[in-house]
Protein 1
Amino acid sequence: MPGVEGKVALITGAGSGIGRATALVLARGGACVVVCDINLPGAEETAQEVTRAGHRAIPLRVDVSQLDEVEQAVAHACAAFGRVDILFSNAGIAEQVPLLEMTEAQWDRMFSVHLTGTYNCFRAVLPGMLERNWGRLISTSSMGAMTGGVRLAHYCAAKAGIAGLTVAMASELARTGITVNAVAPGVIDTPMVRQSPERWVERMLKTIPMRRFGKPEDIAHAVAYLASEEAGFVTGQILSPNGGSRMKWC
Ligand SMILES: NC(=O)c1ccc[n+]([C@@H]2O[C@H](COP(=O)([O-])OP(=O)(O)OC[C@H]3O[C@@H](n4cnc5c(N)ncnc54)[C@H](O)[C@@H]3O)[C@@H](O)[C@H]2O)c1
């Protein structure tokens, strides 16, 4: 298990799916976890799972699209555990709607949760990381940022924005001890995917060479590697665990 022992990890969207699995994996590796989600009961459930397993966690209700809420969460994290070493910006929403039927509010909401949410998280945790010359900024793009997706223009564009933000910030922070990377999951079996139309789910399965959806843990372990001490030379990368989905000849 890559080293995260003694680190403090703040994870958004940790009340469900990939975020919850990552909270559990990082906690098992010895990190304290700050479990943030707009859905407080979900965050509480994750934090209970972590503490029941004998590790340390606090749940917080946070809307990542609001900078003041994210800054308060970081202040809470520092009060509870002293600092934030690892950020996993992962909160997300999904909906499928053709561009011409999409309202401006739907477009804006997609960007405010994914892209502005990630920017808000970076802003809130960076000052402390810069003081200590150590940090791991990891965010969640999507394979869809590279492949596109029908009725997903706002989602794919926001996720592509996260990939661009990742590479830009990796350059900006290259000499600071802070690495910046993203995961770009393929289709992962979480509540977000289970709410998609059955026909879409069946079609997607056929496009995956491994003929299975990913498990939240498949992403959690990739995040744990990027968060680790051992990944100190890895920055500006978009790692896409996807069951081989981008290979052409399978
Ligand atoms: N599941 C997939 O196939 C897949 C593929 C590629 C990328 N992703 C991305 O992975 C991330 C996690 O998704 P998941 O599949 O675990 O979905 P999920 O629905 O299980 O979890 C998303 C979590 O984000 C929380 N959230 C939503 N809006 C929020 C906000 N404004 N502030 C704070 N929390 C908020 C939700 O309450 C939920 O707990 C998302 O960014 C998603 O876009 C998922």
Protein 2
Amino acid sequence: MSILYPIGESGQFLTLEQNVLDHFVKWRQLDLKMPEAGGQLFGAVEGQRVKVKLATGPRRSDRRGRFFFIADRLAERLEISALHKSGLHYLGDWHTHPQYVPIPSGTDLSSMADLFARSKHDLNAFLMVIVGTAEFPEGLHVSLHEANAWSALNVERET
Ligand SMILES: [Zn+2]
């Protein structure tokens, strides 16, 4: 099973593939003591579909707390070049929130804008997924980020 999100009026769809959903489920902050987790999202464009095929992280060198997650950016850059060789392209980042239905924080929005503006890439936008504690897709926030704009994607249907 995958979850499908139309990308605006573009006719394109973003899909979160099953193993990505399985990875998210493992890191949901269901327990009050669980710290935030996060990592990177990789995939490929196939026709009209942008398929998110792999979610990585968290890793030991990340800094994690109940209400924060700071990734090891150096390790992440190395991961991006390693996976690129196997045809998996960096698409964006994911992290968890201890919220039933996750809502991006001001820091989430500004750091995605910053990341998009500062890093070298050829994407039209960076993807951000926030994993809450509700069942999916309700417990997922999915959005696309540019330097000066962002938009949330709404789920179409489960396939
Ligand atoms: Zn957040």
Protein 3
Amino acid sequence: MKYMGSKRLMLKNGLGKLIKKEIVDSNRFFDAFTGSGIVAAHVAENYEVHVKAFDLQLFSTIVSNAIISRDEEIEWQPVWNQWEKRAKEIKRHYRIPSTKKITQRVVDDCRNWAARQNELPITKAYGGHYFSPLQTVWIDALRTTLPKDKTIRTVALSALIQAASQCAASPGHTAQPFQPTKTAKPYLAEAWKKDIPHVTKNIFSSLATRSAKKKGVAEVADANKIASRLKENDLVFIDPPYSGVHYSRFYHVLETIARGKCGDVSGVGRYPDPKLRPRSKYSIISESQTALDELLKKISSRKAKAILTYPDHQCSNGLSGEIVRETAEKYFSIKEQSVESKFSSLGGRSNGDQNAAGRDARRNANELILLLKPKKV
Ligand SMILES: C[S@@+](CC[C@H](N)C(=O)[O-])C[C@H]1O[C@@H](n2cnc3c(N)ncnc32)[C@H](O)[C@@H]1O
């Protein structure tokens, strides 16, 4: 799944090797800011340790749990056949507007039609914006007919969330959809053609064959709170936000699919009520340093080891590689590596200016990997 700050590439570029070395004497692995869940899944699939993953966003924990909470494969084909059949049954009740030729008028008609679908929450909020009406009706239909079995349901919901992320008519996140302007229309048309059930089925089948060596769990929780559950011989992975804009601004569509509803939305970005969008101290300039200090202090007091990654430059949330290093030195002995990393600075401006974010959306920069061992007293 495309995710701001994903450690997918870094796992092959230094981080994977360091985890392999340090996991040997660890009883448990805590992924404190799990995001796309890629690091938690990597550890769960490769090592006999209990993995615990945390994030403020529900969809992150669903995507993580789809792999880390299961130690057996799922026989996916019969489950998919039944699930698709139930969803088709719902879909056939709707006369969905055609989007063969995309014009401003067609888009307006789609939006007006979607806004009237009170019993289809995803369609009402996002139809004609991030998705075509046909796509959102499929998302609603698949969301309401998820398999009943708890474990399989999580895998199915994760597949649907990831399919929505792949198909959304927006640039890699869902802060603003493409509009039918001269330049963006081809992107909108391409995205709206994507086949939601087909993409969901592919992701579901591939997730079904993956599982953990030992069952773990992902929970919605604040990293600073769960740090007090740590013990000696635990290994914690710390990958906090670097943006002064909350993650929930970029991922509200996925969060809505995870929750199944979002109420009224507003603005071009179709944002749900702020109460439904998690806020992080790590994305508030005046609070990020204190939050990091508190977290590292707690981890060291529990005598746990940690691996921390952070961009080695000034970030829009007020933290920088230098500040992170200095804070960590207060509580730990540090071993440092630096790797070249292509990372996203979407939302790099604290005012959330999309154009500004777009201009320097991807750049090469160094990212620190710090191994933190509690100081001997
Ligand atoms: C840089 S991303 C992590 C990326 C992740 N390591 C990956 O590879 O996909 C930071 C994540 O921290 C989450 N987050 C922000 N504040 C948090 C907090 N106080 N506790 C737990 N998670 C938090 C955000 O929702 C976001 O998913």
